[in-house]
Amino acid sequence: MRRLLASLALVTSVLVPGVARADGAADLVGTWKRDDGKLYRLDLESQSGELVGKALNPPAADDEGKRFYSVDLHLKVEGQKVEGKAVWIEPNPKKGQPGQPESWSANARWELTLTEPGKLKGKTEWLEWAAGVVSDRGFDEHSFTRLPVVTLGGTGTAPDKVEGGQPINAAALAGTWKTSTGAYVTVKQAEAGFLVERLSGEGAFPQSIKLVNDANVLRGMAAWADGAETNVELKLAAPGRLEGRTERLEGEKDHYEKSWAPWALDRLARVDATTAEATGEAAALAPGATAELPLDMKREDGLYLKLERKEDGSYSGELVSKADGSRAKIELSPAGENRYAGKATFTVDGSPVELKWEIAAAEGGAVARCEWVDWDPAAKTAPVRGTVTRKFKALRRVG
Questions:
Q1: Left (φ > 0), alpha (ψ -120 to 50) or beta: where does 207 sit?
Q2: What percentage of the chain's residues is helix, strand, coil (to nearest 5)?
Q3: Poorest-confidence range of 8-12, 87-91, 148-152?
Q4: In a domain, 167, yes or no
Q5: In whole angstroms, what is the distance from residue 110 CA to residue 108 CA?
Q6: Is 388 contained in some domain?
Q7: pTM for this one?
Q8: Helix count (H) and strand count (E) of the chain?
Q9: Residue 131 domain-assigned (yes or no)
Q10: Does 366 fall in a domain?
């Protein structure tokens, strides 16, 4: 007779103070590791709403290791409790002979409790049986841990395939991109294609992501620190929008469950610059030619700077577009050597965005060192900042 230990691992994704809860069976889908190294995979059965799964490394059913049990898992989730059964199936070495079944099966029970996110403790039933006849049974205590997922992608359904979109080149990929999982990245042209590099973000991220342009689809590989590799496929669906899919690995290296996960990137709006004209920091500003600034000037990008000088020597005004009206409120104060420093306050999606300015009078107008940012309106933050040199031409004020 063989004594069989039937075990199942589960976890919750919603935490209530003092209580671990599963927000439905769908949140328990995954690969789990028992405290003795056994691995189990759980998936959602859409019609019944049950979790179904299997043991990934079941024990041998004979002393020679030629036959192996299979273990099918079935369970229901109610609050903290997870109850169900494992169906142990032993292949019959005499199958095919007259009167011999193909296999034998027996059920074992689980009584488990979710204790904290990623952890489960409880008792799982063991069996002593032979040829489908159970001679003894009992329970053992076990603990389980959910294994991490290796992927760049998020939740949802990935496309079946990725086909070419809009033309892809370095200019189309310039700037700062926010991934669907919240990381900020750049996509830089390299000798053989493009490199995706993370600027900031939380959680695991590949050591490298190398892509090549294959008929306007970026295809390549993400290499992770533990040696795992995940394929990546992206298209430029619209200006400033990359979307596609990336591989999802779940489990341990020798027992990965592979699937596809959706992955999308959106380029952040660059405030007061373009990706073509601004890539880093501008040179320091030279002392001003005169103590006062012209009150009406035109910037080289077509915007107008209208200033009013105050009694204390500071300036206030607006940066104006002929087509759109006021772009930013300007505040400047003396900063020494005929230079002025202050800020330009833009409004982006209803939020104020303050950018540093330095400006000094120059022959025929003024020269400024103006800050730009790549702005995330959802997080109301600027993950990337830089400066660019701006030239202003003085205009004659009449009337």
A1: alpha
A2: 0, 60, 40
A3: 8-12
A4: yes
A5: 7
A6: yes
A7: 0.73
A8: 0, 29
A9: yes
A10: yes
CA 204 to each of CA 32, 183, 251: distance values in angstroms, whole numbers, following the listed order? 19, 10, 15
Give the 3-state secondary structure of residue 31: strand
Helices (H), the chain: none
Domain count for the chain: 3
Claim to verify: residue 158 and residue 252 sit in the same structural domain:
yes
Q: How far apart are CA 193 and CA 103, in angstroms?
A: 54
**Last residue in a domain, options 112, 147, 182:** 147
From CA 50, how far away is CA 60, in angstroms rounded? 28
Among residues 146, 144, 147, the alpha carbon closest in space to that of 124 is found at 144
- pLDDT score of 397: 66
What phi and psi values does residue 104 have, to the nearest 5 degrees?
-120, 155
Judge contact between 179 and 264, C-beta under 8 A: yes
Shared domain check, 333 and 373: yes
Tokens of 111: 């009584």
Q: What DSSP string describes 155-169?
A: SSPPPS-----S---
Q: What is the CATH number of the domain that holds 7?
A: 2.40.128.30
pLDDT band (50, 70, 90) for residue 116: confident
- Its sign, for the CA torsion 244, 246, 250, 255, is positive
Task: Please indicate whether residue 23 or residue 330 has the higher confidence score (pLDDT).
Answer: 330
